[in-house]
Amino acid sequence: MKMFSVSHKTAFVVDHCPYMAESCRQQVECDVLTKSRGQGMIPLAPVSKSLWTCAVECSMEYCRILYDVYPLRKLLMSALAAVGPPNPQEDPECCSVLHGLVAAVESLCKITEYQHEARTTLMDTADRVANRGRIICLTNAKSDTHVRMLEDCVQETILEQNKMAAGSDRLMPIQQCELVLVHIFPQGEDTLVSDRPKKEVSSLLTSEVHSVRAGRHLATKLNILVQQHFDLASTTITNIPMKEEQHANTSANYDVELLHHRDAHLEFFKSGDLHMAGSTSRDSGLKETVTLKWCTPRTNSVELHYCTGAYRISPTDVNSRPSSCLTNFLLNGRSVLLEQPRKSGSKVISHMLSSHGGEIFLHVLNSTRSTLEDPPSISEGCGGRVTDYRITDFGEFMRENRLTPVPESPDTEASGKPPAERAKAQLERYTRYWPMIISQTTIFNMQAVVPLANLIVKESLSEEDLLTCQKTVYNLVDMERKNDPLPISTVGSRGKGPKRDEQYRIMWNELETLVKTHVAGSERHQRVLDCIIACRSKPPEEEERKKRGRKREDKEDKAEKNINKDSEDKSWQESERLKGVVERVKEEQGESEVIKDSPDSPEPLNKKPRLEEIQLPEKAKGPVSLLTMWTNRITVANSRKHQEFAGRISSVNNKAELYQHLKDENGMDLHENGKATR
């Protein structure tokens, strides 16, 4: 069936009875020349609109907003232009709004151009194309009984017109009609008609009643109704800088409210930032608007921004100066960026105002990952890069919840629920508590908890399942008694992480949370929870043992810190001692170099040890220290400043044998007189 909603046809019925000529009693000041008026001039008296004028103006404003946002494929009656104001002298008995309601129902039965196009495309009967519509009646009812009489009139007329349309090719039966009765009464008077939400009068007719004061209250009510009827939403642009008319050199900030399709706020609803975006209420909570902040325009190019949607806008107060200035600014080819007002953090540009072809659009900018980019890795999350997703566990989760076709059989029917409902129920149980990240869970990282985690999600537990779960709990108690370590993630934390007893407290809390989500399944689920609670309540001697364990851990930590501090002090003292030795050697070698300036100068008798002869303490194998590097450099530099003694070069253990050339071949020593001695 071709779907045409009730918004496809909207018929306005404005009561033209003599009472509608009464004043709405909301005064409008016409004397604007208060300061420049002369002494002899009489001030102008304020005026007030009639109920008819208020109703017509609000109806036209309803139509204006609708045509701004939906310029095509929307139909409204235009008969109000040919009707004059009501005559207050006319007999009220001769005037009745019932004639207008009958005419509205007749208009809804007529085939529109779009319905005819749909029928022609389908090449089928009129039954395949839906015919729905809405009637908005602005009147002054006498009482609630009068309202019920109007509803009965519309119901009877629909039945009569449907009979006529069944035998006609130019008419279509009405399948659904919404009747919106707006009771208008002057300000200062009490209403005789009570408000009533939408109710179903019959399968063809629904009705709702609104009792509203004439004037600005009626305009606000019609503004809210047009948003409800055509899925519109309100956005208020704040902090718009505008120059003052009286003072051209000064500027002030103004606000402008715009109406557009509700999908422009869809990202706010998805991300949950609607409240953060500045959702406020006005007119005693009757109207809601999302506040966006004006950003100074810096570019005229629209193509620089990635948009996910564009929606036509309509100013709420089209005749106000701020609205006029904003529309003229945008129609001149400028673009305005809009940001979400936030108390902290960086600003988020979420929307942009720009015009195309003489029409102004509200563009929704992509503030998250663009669909044009490469698909995100599974290790990336909404809050940034997350590298510890439970990917393996999720694969197992998918295998356990696979859907398979089930043939119809007596066993399937006897089980009560159809297979699809049982599958949904199982998926709901499995996802009641399922952390997605490894660092956010402890029990799902422990092999000892796997039996309990796999059984607790079952719809019912057998006696064997109960014993397995209790055995798992007792194993955890035994692990805690032995002080075994737990797989607690320390990502983002400094130091060694939480203490051992704190780790077990986290584990028990998470295990209790898991079981509590399934405790309503059966009586055995409750017994598993009771077992956990009983094991968590430790006896006094167990608490005393825990305290001694914590004290022992604190002592071990302090001892380890003291050892590290002592080793650091000893290393520093050794470094300082070696530094002093090197400095003294450098000074003494400098003095010897001054004496050795002459090549004939002999070696000093009291020879100081050279730098190479200093036995430095052995270091552990590993990288060369800075002190060793500096010592080697000084040694090489000093060795290049003089020629080493030949005897010392060929000496053995720093002892050189003199007059070696005087020895003969027979091992005899020769003297100056030529005599030889042994």
TrEMBL record:
Full protein name: Integrator complex subunit 13
Annotated compartments: Cytoplasm; Nucleus
Cellular component, GO annotation: cytoplasm; integrator complex
Chief location bin: cytoplasm
Pfam families to which the protein is assigned, alphabetical: Mat89Bb
Residues covered by region (Disordered): 402-423, 539-608
Transmembrane segments: none
